[in-house]
Amino acid sequence: MKKHLSILGSTGSIGRNVLNIVAMFPDRFAVAALTAKDNIALLAEQVRRFHPEMAVVYDADRAEALRKLLSDQPDVRIAFGDEGYRSAAGLEAAHMVVGAMMGAAGLKPTLAAIDAGKPIALANKETLVMAGELVMGRAAEKGVDILPVDSEHSAIFQCLSGQRRSDLQKILLTASGGPFLDRAADEFPHIRPEDALKHPNWEMGRKITIDSATLMNKGLEVIEARWLFDVSRADIEVVVHPQSIVHSMVSYRDGSVIAQLGVPDMKGAIAYALSWPERLPLGQPVPDFPGLGALTFRAPDLNRFPCLGLAFEACDAGGTLPAVLNAANEIAVGAFLNRKIVFPGIPDTVRAVMGQHTVIQHPTLSDILEADQWARAQAEDYVNR
Ligand SMILES: NC(=O)C1=CN([C@@H]2O[C@H](COP(=O)(O)OP(=O)(O)OC[C@H]3O[C@@H](n4cnc5c(N)ncnc54)[C@H](OP(=O)(O)O)[C@@H]3O)[C@@H](O)[C@H]2O)C=CC1
Ligand SMILES: CC(=O)[C@@H](O)[C@H](O)COP(=O)(O)O
Ligand SMILES: [Mn+2]
């Protein structure tokens, strides 16, 4: 039987890669629902090619425009907004939901997928950063599998497989270090968005690419790993590995280290989440080890990359603070991309907003959504001050 996917964020970098895999394996996968925010032209193209039952966009105007583009496809249900995304996530026909939206928008549809009992291939790390305790708790209650798509978390998942949890020593989370790994601190105020959008190894959406450049991506991934694998922050060490060939490692109490390696291409991690525990014949090359010559490792520099330290702080404090970190970061990244603030303004904004927050422990969904909204407003004030 074909596995039908509801792909939330199908027009993005991850979403397009998921559809490439669906196209490569038409006997295994089909599409139940596709969602986007603004990009109705690409969404319409995807609908024509993959024939989902449902397509969802951000608001009524975009839904109307999509309906016009797809006037010759009367069988496709078109919906919009929170309700539409929730319906796509819980669609009867879907065997699995792919969480590939950008940012905090991914949280509510992920919860809807869990409530509907759908296994989730999760790329949207912000969901676990904001609400890891709630999401993992609800998934456990419902017996829903959350399969990591994020490359490091897919690697860790693979390195943990078949091992005893009581033997685990540390998760070694690798970071490329981004485009400014060797840039002097006094040059940071002059970094332009177009420089920060040039990731050395990965082709990704704009927001995550800026997060990689500030190392906030690694901070978000520490919080993601904390919840996904039920470990404490002290059990996770960030190791800078500029080649992005070792996708992450796990060390055990006998001193053994198990690593997962591969070329930096998200197809591997995505396909593994879609087909786990089977591996698909992707035709991916094995890294050219003689050509690479050396794989190198070093410690992260928290002075030049304060976002990583802020994420450690949020992870340690827990409660609503990670949601505040995430929301302030989303606003700050947007402001940097719009040239309203300089590159070091990103950690400055996040620090200022975190400093004003009163943390609520074991937050409910409404506590988290309120903290998110509060932090966005504070961050807007800060970047516009
Ligand atoms: N790209 C990668 O290689 C990796 C990404 N991730 C994570 O996966 C997620 C997606 O990343 P990526 O594919 O790069 O992002 P993109 O920006 O390329 O795509 C984001 C997708 O989400 C949609 N979207 C954006 N905002 C909203 C919103 N407010 N409501 C509904 N839909 C929305 C976009 O629609 P539209 O196109 O219409 O704007 C698009 O389909 C992120 O959480 C990222 O951290 C994790 C590991 C690797
Ligand atoms: C592909 C992927 O998973 C990204 O999250 C990637 O890890 C970004 O690279 P760095 O954050 O290590 O630069
Ligand atoms: Mn990653």
UniProtKB/TrEMBL annotation:
GO terms for biological process: isopentenyl diphosphate biosynthetic process, methylerythritol 4-phosphate pathway involved in terpenoid biosynthetic process. Residues 146-229 form the 1-deoxy-D-xylulose 5-phosphate reductoisomerase C-terminal domain. It comes from the Bacteria. Mn(2+) binds at D150, E152, E221. NADPH binds at T11, G12, S13, I14, N39, N124, E126, G205. 1-deoxy-D-xylulose 5-phosphate binds at K125, S151, E152, S176, H199, S212, N217, K218, E221. Pathway: Isoprenoid biosynthesis; isopentenyl diphosphate biosynthesis via DXP pathway; isopentenyl diphosphate from 1-deoxy-D-xylulose 5-phosphate: step 1/6. Residues 261-377 form the DXP reductoisomerase C-terminal domain. Its EC number is 1.1.1.267. Keywords: Isomerase, Isoprene biosynthesis, Magnesium, Manganese, Metal-binding, NADP, Oxidoreductase. The keyword Transmembrane does not apply. Pfam families: DXP_redisom_C, DXP_reductoisom, DXPR_C. It catalyses: 2-C-methyl-D-erythritol 4-phosphate + NADP(+) = 1-deoxy-D-xylulose 5-phosphate + NADPH + H(+). Its cofactor is Mg(2+); Mn(2+). Residues 5-132 form the 1-deoxy-D-xylulose 5-phosphate reductoisomerase N-terminal domain. One of its GO terms (molecular function) is NADPH binding. Catalyzes the NADPH-dependent rearrangement and reduction of 1-deoxy-D-xylulose-5-phosphate (DXP) to 2-C-methyl-D-erythritol 4-phosphate (MEP). Belongs to the DXR family. This is 1-deoxy-D-xylulose 5-phosphate reductoisomerase. The lineage of its organism: Bacteria, Pseudomonadati, Thermodesulfobacteriota, Desulfobacteria, Desulfobacterales.
